[in-house]
UniProtKB/TrEMBL annotation:
Keywords carried by this UniProt record: Isoprene biosynthesis, Lyase, Metal-binding, Multifunctional enzyme, Nucleotidyltransferase, Transferase
Documented EC number(s): 2.7.7.60, 4.6.1.12
Region annotation (2-C-methyl-D-erythritol 4-phosphate cytidylyltransferase) ranges: 1-229
GO terms under biological process: isopentenyl diphosphate biosynthetic process, methylerythritol 4-phosphate pathway; terpenoid biosynthetic process
Site feature (Positions MEP for the nucleophilic attack) residues: 157, 210
Entry keyword annotation includes Transferase: yes
Role noted for this protein: Bifunctional enzyme that catalyzes the formation of 4-diphosphocytidyl-2-C-methyl-D-erythritol from CTP and 2-C-methyl-D-erythritol 4-phosphate (MEP) (IspD), and catalyzes the conversion of 4-diphosphocytidyl-2-C-methyl-D-erythritol 2-phosphate (CDP-ME2P) to 2-C-methyl-D-erythritol 2,4-cyclodiphosphate (ME-CPP) with a corresponding release of cytidine 5-monophosphate (CMP) (IspF).
Site (Transition state stabilizer): 15, 22
Cofactor(s) required, per the database record: a divalent metal cation
Reactions performed catalytically: 4-CDP-2-C-methyl-D-erythritol 2-phosphate = 2-C-methyl-D-erythritol 2,4-cyclic diphosphate + CMP; 2-C-methyl-D-erythritol 4-phosphate + CTP + H(+) = 4-CDP-2-C-methyl-D-erythritol + diphosphate
Organism of this sequence: Cryobacterium tagatosivorans
Span within the parent record: 7 to 235 of 404
Listed name of the protein: Bifunctional enzyme IspD/IspF
Coiled-coil zones: none
Length: 229
């Protein structure tokens, strides 16, 4: 059986303050999309990699992704995205190969994610038969606040995990959750959970942080330049 990784890269990324859609923004000479694709093709096993890109950039996405596939054994498909992240994932699910048993969904914006984290998610899905998400302990104190900024209550951080991607699921579980979904959820784990399936957390990786703001992009550049020395 094959693993499929859906890389969602169809967002506009307005919070980054860049003219380009986020996945096409360069980071130390290579786009976020190229970096994400390279990390996924670095997995231990062959995968079907499905890139979900903006409709007007399909050819560009295909060329960038193919250039980073290297000599990896696997398959590459590029499809156009939808209006929301969830709609984009659904477009990716529509082209799963028949022999895929495990599906990972990954944000292109988490461009520095190590390949080993993808391998760990796949292994945990196969071992548990459930949904698996990487997560980090929350180190800050978290407060619930109202629109005026008044603190309403604290939230016990022992009960919290800051979850990342790739999020992995048995194929049938994810397809069933998408078929029954009635409303937009924040991520795939929330969708699968709301469909009544179990999801558990495995240790995430700080390098899998999501590049959202200009500061995140700067941080990613600093990390890469430190690695090059
Ligand atoms: O906007 P946000 O950072 O939460 O997006 C997370 C990921 O989902 C990004 O990689 C983005 O490209 C993708 N996305 C998408 N289609 C959308 C919205 C977001 O593929 N309509």
């Amino acid at each position: 059986p094959l693993v499929a990784v859906i890389i969602v890269a169809a967002g506009s990324g307005t919070r980054l303050g860049h003219e380009l859609p986020k996945a096409f923004v360069p980071l130390a000479g290579r786009t976020l999309l190229e970096r994400a694709v390279e990390s996924v093709f670095g997995m231990r096993e062959a995968a079907q990699v499905i890139v979900v890109a903006p409709e007007d950039r399909l050819d560009e996405a295909r060329a960038l992704a193919a250039g980073r596939a290297g000599s990896a054994v696997g398959y590459l498909d590029v499809v156009s995205g939808g209006d929301s992240r969830q709609a984009s994932v659904k477009r990716g699910l529509a082209v799963l190969r028949p022999d895929v048993d495990t599906v990972l969904v990954h944000d292109a914006a988490r461009a520095l994610t190590p390949s080993a984290l993808c391998d760990a998610v796949v292994a945990a899905v196969r071992a548990s038969g459930a949904g698996v998400v990487p997560g980090l302990d929350v180190v800050d104190s978290i407060k619930r606040v109202d629109s005026q900024g008044a603190v309403l209550a604290g939230v016990d951080r022992q009960d919290l995990s800051a979850v990342q991607t790739p999020q992995g699921f048995p194929r049938r579980m994810l397809l069933s959750a998408f078929d029954t979904a009635t409303e937009e959820q924040t991520d795939d784990a929330a969708l699968v959970l709301s469909a009544g399936f179990p999801v558990s957390v495995i240790p995430g990786d700080p390098l899998a942080f999501k590049i959202t703001t200009a500061w995140d992009l700067h941080r990613a550049e600093l990390l890469l330049s430190a690695r090059a020395q």
